[in-house]
Design goal:
The protein is an alpha+beta fold and 227 residues long. The protein has helices spanning 5-10, 19-27, 112-121, 123-146, 152-167, 178-185, 189-201, 217-222, and strands spanning 31-36, 41-43, 51-57, 60-65, 71-77, 82-83, 98-101, 105-111, 171-173, 205-207, 211-214.
């Protein structure tokens, strides 16, 4: 685990910690390092949260699966991201959604007792931990808001416009598969494909297996809230 010290030092939570301090932390039996193959369920919905987790390698995904089997990806976490901090000290500390390994994954699990000791021993750590909780709560609230009361076309338009500004191009190179995009929207892949085909027939986009081209950015922008 010591090879991850520099990664931990780059996180907001452990910024300013010396290598010796982190070496001591990683030697604590309350800190556990685990590796998980892609597709592993790390936590099931309603499972109790007992540790703060730091992603060291790979991508961890928080997903909601409805009664019809639709998968809604709430958020992905990459190396350096923290998971579980907003649940750890709650009296209702149960994961509200499923947490899975989206790729091969390595995680540092820090038990509740160890986090409590760090908070008591360092005001700086305490403040950063509270900031992390606040930021995560705001992010998840905004994310859930953005995924409610929208049509499939609105989801697609918001995604395309976001990628248009990120990639600075009307031809969007797809950063994920259509299956992953459907999961991000919380819909079935056939539903996504049908709407993409409708948008192509309506003259809004052109697409192939690897990219989607916006034919008129201004028109697409005007349809964002009127679709």
């Amino acid at each position: 685990m010591r090879k991850y010290i520099s990664l931990l030092q780059s996180t907001d939570l452990f910024y300013g910690f010396s290598s010796a301090e982190l070496d001591d932390l990683l030697s604590d039996p309350l800190c556990k390092f685990n590796e998980y193959p892609k597709g592993t369920m790390i936590y099931s919905q309603n499972e109790k949260c007992k540790s703060l987790d730091i992603v060291l390698i790979g991508v961890l995904s928080v997903q909601k699966i409805d009664s019809n089997g639709n998968i809604l990806t709430i958020s992905d976490f990459i190396a350096g991201d923290i998971v579980g901090g907003n649940l750890l000290f709650s009296p209702k500390n149960f994961y509200p959604m499923t947490v899975i390994a989206k790729s091969d994954l390595a995680i540092l699990h820090i038990d509740k007792e160890c986090i409590l000791a760090l908070c008591q021993g360092s005001q700086t750590f305490l403040v950063r931990f509270l900031q992390s909780i606040s930021d995560k709560t705001l992010f998840l609230t905004d994310r859930i808001k953005s995924l409610t009361m929208k049509t499939i076309r609105q989801y697609i338009i918001e995604f395309l416009l976001g990628e248009y500004y990120l990639q600075n191009s009307a031809t969007i190179k797809m950063p994920m598969s259509k299956k992953e995009l459907a999961e991000r929207f919380g819909i079935q892949r056939p539903s996504l494909s049908r709407e993409l085909n409708k948008m192509r027939r309506d003259g809004l986009i052109i697409f192939d297996a690897h990219s989607i081209t916006i034919r008129d950015v201004a028109l697409l922008s005007s349809l964002r809230v009127h679709t």
